[in-house]
TrEMBL record:
It comes from Candidatus Aramenus sulfurataquae. The lineage of its organism: Archaea, Thermoproteota, Thermoprotei, Sulfolobales, Sulfolobaceae. This is X-Pro dipeptidase. Residues 4-128 form the Creatinase N-terminal domain. It holds the Pfam family Peptidase_M24. InterPro entries: Creatin/AminoP/Spt16_N, Creatinase/aminopeptidase-like, Creatinase_N, Pept_M24, Peptidase_M24B, Peptidase_M24B_aminopep-P_CS. Belongs to the peptidase M24B family.
Length: 352
């Protein structure tokens, strides 16, 4: 953690930013290992060019002191911002996910001369994963995939999508995960043409294509995988589209280190175009993943940053035909010369 803070302080020095103010978000966890939800009292981790400290309500004092960081506390009823030694006119980088009420108070109290999102400084650090982070993501994937294989035994005609989603979530916890890393998606039949529909009370029917997009939270990190299931043999049109989507994924997974997110996205998109289904590919090819499910880098049109070694991201092309069905196939990869797939699940349709 201290090494990460020192890297951020070097960036502050280079960019001439006085303070980075982080809320209880994934950024705070990245630099300190501390996790808490945002509530109405300000709880910050503040990094300057020379030091770093927690700023917190008195109720957190004992808890935070055990983390070997300096802690500045305030009591209920006090104006907390009077306890902060931030000069007026300082330049501030503020956590993108910090509640707006805190941002407004910081602006009103300290009149910053320069204000920018902290992601401008922190994303380049977080995008490149260290070996411990990659190991944690692999361990999380093992839990998620084992849970999915157990979940397949639960799928039967007449079950609702949401009941099945809950069963998968239960398996994550049973196997040692903290829970789902996002709202699990289990959709069937025509519902699968809506990429981010979570689930409904629609009953699974024989012959349905079932889309399962799932991930586990493990040691603070997230996984994200999508597989296609069918109850009975999938129809010929489903199989045809599935093979096109799988081919598009293979194209993107054959990209090379140093290509941009835009260029990798184009590999998948151009493959779809050969089969005249690119108009049904309505989202980006992938996104970075780590503590957050969606973080930089993005495998998307217009994303012109290079994808370099140890960046971890998803490759998830899809085709969605409104009112009929949708197909998506998603793996997590780490860039190492070319994308190395971290998943071990079969890429075939799981016909039950």
């Amino acid at each position: 953690m201290r090494t990460r803070i020192k890297k951020l302080q070097s960036v502050l020095e280079k960019e001439n930013i006085d303070f980075t103010i982080l809320g209880p978000t994934s950024n705070m966890f990245y630099f300190t290992g501390f996790r808490e939800e945002q509530m109405e009292r300000p709880l910050f981790f503040i990094v300057s060019k020379r030091n770093s400290f927690f700023f917190a309500p008195k109720i957190y004092e004992e808890q935070l002191q055990k983390m070997d960081f300096d802690v500045v506390v305030y009591n209920d009823g006090e104006d907390p911002y009077t306890k902060l030694d931030i000069p007026k006119g300082a330049s501030l980088a503020v956590d993108d996910q910090l509640w707006s009420v805190f941002l407004v108070n910081l602006i009103n109290k300290f009149s910053p001369s320069n204000l920018l999102p902290a992601s401008a400084l922190i994303s380049p650090l977080r995008m490149v994963k260290d070996e411990e982070e990659i190991r944690t993501l692999k361990e999380g994937l093992k839990i998620a995939e084992t849970a999915f294989t157990r979940f397949l035994d639960e799928v039967s005609e007449g079950d609702s999508e949401c009941r099945l989603a809950r069963k998968l979530d239960e398996e994550f916890v049973n196997l040692g995960g903290e829970g789902a890393s996002f709202g699990t998606i289990v959709t069937s039949g025509s519902n699968t043409s809506m990429p981010h529909l979570r689930c409904t009370e629609k009953k699974i029917r024989r012959g349905d294509v079932i889309l399962v997009d799932f991930g586990v939270k493990y040691k603070g990190y997230s996984t994200d995988t999508t597989r296609v299931v069918s109850l009975g043999n999938p129809g010929e049109e489903v199989k045809k589209i599935y093979e096109i989507v799988r081919g598009a994924q293979e194209e993107a997974e054959n990209s090379l280190e140093g290509m941009t997110g835009d260029e990798i996205d184009s590999l998948a998109r151009n493959y779809m175009r050969k089969y005249s289904v690119d108009q049904f590919f309505i989202h980006r090819t992938g996104h970075g993943i780590g503590i957050d499910v969606h973080e930089e880098p993005y495998i998307s049109q217009g994303y012109n940053k290079k994808i370099t070694r140890n960046m971890v991201f998803t490759v998830e092309p899809g085709v969605y035909i409104q009112g009929k069905f949708g197909i998506r196939l998603e793996d997590m990869v780490v860039m190492d010369g070319k994308p190395k797939v971290l998943n071990s699940l079969s890429k075939e349709i799981f016909a039950l």
